[in-house]
Amino acid sequence: SRALWTLRIAFVVLCCSFVPATLLAWRTYGWLSRAFYRAAATWLAALNFSCLTATLAWIAFAICVIFRVRVPREDLAAVLSALALVATIYGLANAATVRVTRVSVKLPNLPNAWRGRTVALVSDTHLGHTNGTKFMRRIVRQLNRAKPEVVFISGDMFDGTTGPLDDFAAPWRELSVRRGAYFITGNHEEFSSRQKYLDAVSKSGVRILNNEKVEIEGLQVVGIHYRETTYAPTFAQLLKEAGIASDRASILLAHTPSHLDVAEQAGVSLQLSGHTHGGQFIPFTWITNRIYGKYVHGLQNYGGMQIFTTWGAGTWGPPARLGTKPEIALLTLS
């Protein structure tokens, strides 16, 4: 029928919509491009869950045929389609609710001034066409209520698309913590020249760690930008130049939980990372688990080093999460 063909054409157009929406987002930040991007990204989440439940429908139908169980295909499809709709709505609501995760970390040779103190880790806010200034202000308010000693930002503050970068970062001026905030880039700040992102972050009052080490009341804090961590020899050289004292506690900010052997050999006590998002939702949660293994999320050991990977506070692409949650991590040191 004509209606069915109209639906088929609309379906094909929707399936392709995220590509032009992303290309448009790289060039404009008007209300129309934002609305188009959000609609296309939301549809992509719905399409993902619909494809999964369609696959389940065929598997369930095959099982019914094998065991000679009579179930009307239309009823089976309707039930699983409803499941896809529920998964989409829950995923969208889940991604919009940022939680606080609390973790205790024991660090050898930790200065007495830091015992019992809490540091916050914020990563992957992906400020752009989905989450913007209001979202960043919510994160800062949550941090102010939590009252950590210091805030570490391990990259992907920005999504990499065009937009008012200074406005996106401006809420950090409202941060009220004793020792401020420190930032290193993620891969999304490296899509083009990272300087414009560093300038916006610097104007907001956040301290940028440009492949360097700082001392915060006896605690060594090292920050290496994303690009420099992707090539192991460069990464190792920068850590060597930072002069990490292995007999004192140290924290490394590195966007991805990769090249852990390099950081461990350099004498790092604790690495803080993001990037993975945990995959956000199935089936991508399975893929990221295969790539990063146990380091995809949470506190883990790697030799004599510990690593904590956060799921991140924002999302990339579809603004949905299922099986993961957006989070701000609070790590209490002892």
Major beta sheet summary: 6 strands, mixed
**Which structural class do the helices and strands define?**
alpha/beta
Could you give the order of strands across the largest sheet?
Answer: 1-12-2-3-4-5
Order of helices and strands: HHHHEEHEHEHEEEHHEHEHEEE
Radius of gyration: 22 Å
Quote the average pLDDT.
Answer: 95
Question: What is the number of E strands?
Answer: 12
The amount of helix comes to 40-55%
C-alpha termini separation: 69 Å
C-alpha geometry: globular
Outline the low-pLDDT stretches: none
Q: In percent, how much strand structure appears in the residues?
A: 15-25%
Number of helices: 11
Notes on the protein architecture:
Helices cover 42% and strands 17% of the residues. The chain has helices spanning 2-16, 18-25, 31-66, 73-95, 133-146, 165-169, 195-203, 226-229, 232-242, 260-265, 284-292, and strands spanning 99-105, 118-122, 150-154, 181-184, 207-208, 212-216, 219-223, 250-253, 270-273, 298-302, 305-309, 327-333. A six-stranded mixed β-sheet has the order 1-12-2-3-4-5, with helices on one face. It has a six-stranded mixed β-sheet with strand order 6-7-8-9-11-10. Helix 10 (260-265) links the parallel strand 8 (250-253) and strand 9 (270-273). Helix 2 packs antiparallel against helix 3 and helix 3 (31-66) runs antiparallel to helix 4 (73-95). The protein is globular and about 70 Å long. The termini are far apart.
